[in-house]
């Protein structure tokens, strides 16, 4: 019998872009189908120069930014690509979590391919579809799985485990094949509020004595950041807010539910109202149905308000938040009683808000790691102009390199495939057989190791 194979159609020597194809005796599954944020993409598309909406797939395939895989894409998108339409050659796709580098290209897939997601993942994708211009997963056959409940597809069995990450609805997967268990981590961390879920996933994976571990390695290699936990971020934000008697500002990833929750409770503990953007209000409202502990809800939770940005026209999804929303004058008058979420694109609001010099700005996102980080330079120009105090307080959504090495040693897989990293060789120090995968190469898997398929 032929051994199962894994083929990496993306996520190789780059951060993101995960597209993993697992084949066992003709039963074929995809895991994630996201956009690459590598330098390769920016060789052709940058800023306002982007693929045409009328020939999106064609423009990406032109530069091999997507795999030329038959039986994968929607028929109506193939015109001019050189690929002939074939019925789906995969039986399903499993989504690890709703970040663009894992889901952005779902819309290009044949709608007859079922998409398996967790319930919270599905809710976040719905919010993204509504509030994020340029993203839509398209019409899909959605199949919502339950945590830790096996999903049987042909001869393959997939068990989804919730894990801790910087977006709600993140999963790792145990895949039972004819030769043994294959583990795909998705993106995960061990220092957030759901760290016990990550530990449960890793423990379950270790018990399977996996034939292959497909692990993200975002923070392998040089990593100068401090490894803040989410609890430490909360403590530090508390300290900053208590030390100030002025209006405070913060910026964070719009779908980092843990961070929004931490900022809300920090604001409340310092006697402040947390004023969020329309986009964050939409996410918090959607999450209310899942009854997640501690997560605030617009219109229900005390000390939570929505910022009213002046616009000529408000989108339909923004209109439910208009009543009671606070404009710049109201926020300004509140001063020390408020913490305002303000993303970089919304910085012109400071011109109306006129913050006092020395007002704190909490940058609760990843640190800049390049002297060419133009966005960060622009941010600093604005803070300098208004005399704001800069505070870098962020907990990464990924394990540190040391944590990854330790967990690989503990799990002891037959073979390790480091993906979602620019430094895959750094995981070799874990002392397990490690394959640095090549893009598009298929590897045969077994308990005695992995070899490229002829």
Please describe the structure with a list of short key phrases separated by commas or semicolons.
2 domains; about 20% strand; 8-stranded mixed beta sheet; 6-stranded mixed beta sheet; about 450 residues; about 25% helix; alpha/beta; Rossmann fold; Metallo-beta-lactamase, Chain A; globular
Structure explained in plain terms:
The structure is a single chain. With 454 residues, this protein is an alpha/beta fold. The protein has two domains: 5-37 and 68-222 and 397-452, Ribonuclease Z/Hydroxyacylglutathione hydrolase-like (Metallo-beta-lactamase, Chain A, 4-Layer Sandwich); 230-392, Rossmann fold (3-Layer(aba) Sandwich), CATH 3.40.50.10710. It has twelve helices and 20 strands. The protein has helices at 39-42, 56-62, 100-103, 119-131, 195-207, 230-242, 257-269, 278-287, 328-334, 349-353, 374-386, 401-411, and strands at residues 5-10, 19-24, 27-31, 92-94, 115-117, 142-144, 151-153, 156-162, 171-176, 181-184, 212-216, 248-252, 273-276, 304-306, 338-341, 360-364, 389-392, 416-419, 442-446, 449-452. The chain has an eight-stranded mixed β-sheet with strand order 6-5-4-3-2-1-19-20. The protein has a six-stranded mixed β-sheet with strand order 7-8-9-10-11-18. A six-stranded parallel β-sheet has the order 14-13-15-12-16-17. α11 (374-386) links the parallel β16 (360-364) and β17 (389-392). α4 runs antiparallel to α8 (278-287). The longest helix is centred in the N-terminal third of the chain and has 13 residues, at 119-131. It is globular, with a radius of gyration of 23 Å. 46% of the residues are buried. The model has no long low-confidence stretch (mean pLDDT 94).
